[in-house]
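Our collaborator T.R. sent over the components below with a one-line note: 'Predict the complex.' Nothing else. No constraints on interfaces, no templates requested, no preferences about which chain binds where. So this is a plain run: every listed entity goes in together, and whatever single assembly comes back becomes the starting point for the next discussion.
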Amino acid sequence: MFGRYNKVQRAVLETTLGIIIRKELQATSMALIAKESGVSTGSIYHYFQSKEEIVNELYRAIVAFNGEYVREGLTQGATLREKFEAGWRRVVDLGLKYPAGFQFIEQYSFSPYIYDDVRLAAYTGGWCEPMNRLYADAIARKLFVPMNPKMMVQMHYGTFVYLLKANLHEIYALDEDSIGEAIRSCWNAVLLPEAAGAQL
Amino acid sequence: MFGRYNKVQRAVLETTLGIIIRKELQATSMALIAKESGVSTGSIYHYFQSKEEIVNELYRAIVAFNGEYVREGLTQGATLREKFEAGWRRVVDLGLKYPAGFQFIEQYSFSPYIYDDVRLAAYTGGWCEPMNRLYADAIARKLFVPMNPKMMVQMHYGTFVYLLKANLHEIYALDEDSIGEAIRSCWNAVLLPEAAGAQL
DNA sequence: ATAATTAGAATGAACATTCGATCTAAACTG
DNA sequence: CAGTTTAGATCGAATGTTCATTCTAATTAT
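Returned assembly:
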């Protein structure tokens, strides 16, 4: 997740992520980060300009990681249906395998704490754009209902976010079957009835 | 929204909500609340035990308000399809008419800042439970796919949350048509193909 | 030896909360 | 009814703590 950083930076970023998710940004003090990461405050400030900068760097790193992971899924599979399945499965996987990163992005993607340019870069550098293109193509091919593709992607992302959130907070347990059903239900939600039988 | 509170409490709660949404909890100081609400810090502490208490009270009040609003929608309409439509339409309405309240709940429903008992009470006092029952009935009547109803409601809620979020942040503009389409697409997502023609 | 790195105490600002002083108005008294 | 008491409400300055950040000295690597 933090491959391109050095040992100290990695320790700081990992620790900060852990504390933010365990507690809150509010309760995430530099003293605590220093203590838990084993890096003194002096050193932290040698590598990062400010606390804000750490959080924004965290955001950048996770978006890049998640983006790459989901984009890779989108290239798998020959048919639209397979790409759709693989893409969203990767999104769910991220939430299950890297819950802290997932929750962090979830929590900060609209927060004023994240610099505007970082947020903007996330949109183009993440997996949003390729997924939008997949949907736009499907609409052009008259397979999906003619809605705004951005809107459709956003809606489906919301579906999986909430599925994962509830799983994370132990409202229910998410298993392989439920994930498959959730993806199928999203597919049904946007598939044009006329296209139901065709080769996709 | 804050009908059952007195003038001072209302001013404090409204102001706090406004600041939290405009800024962050982090940046929401008692001094600022006092200044903007026109109530001195001394008086604020006469009516509320602590800052935490204000935020939790805010949460309670908004959940109660939203719960009543959506539950009222769920009683409208004779058929399942009409109830489904009316219920989710109310959820969307809330997001459009009371964006601050909507964003607040969105942001704090899983936050450690909210006391566990308040969060729990929200679940039973809000609209979650009646909506779950609607879905459970539809599954029992073999109209909806046999998934965990809680999961289905959670998924659909996520759909609308993200639709509203993107609208709020001006990624696109949500109009009447799109809302209708979004609700229809959720309906299609869970409707059993066999049930498609029947009277619902 | 020089530059980079690390450490942790020191600094100063910001903050939640408390406190004692006023103010208001209702209740009580003669 | 005028005068007095009392309980609650309001205020903002004072308090003590916490926190991000800086600074200086010490350590390590080149």
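Summary for T.R.: Chain A has a mean pLDDT of 94.
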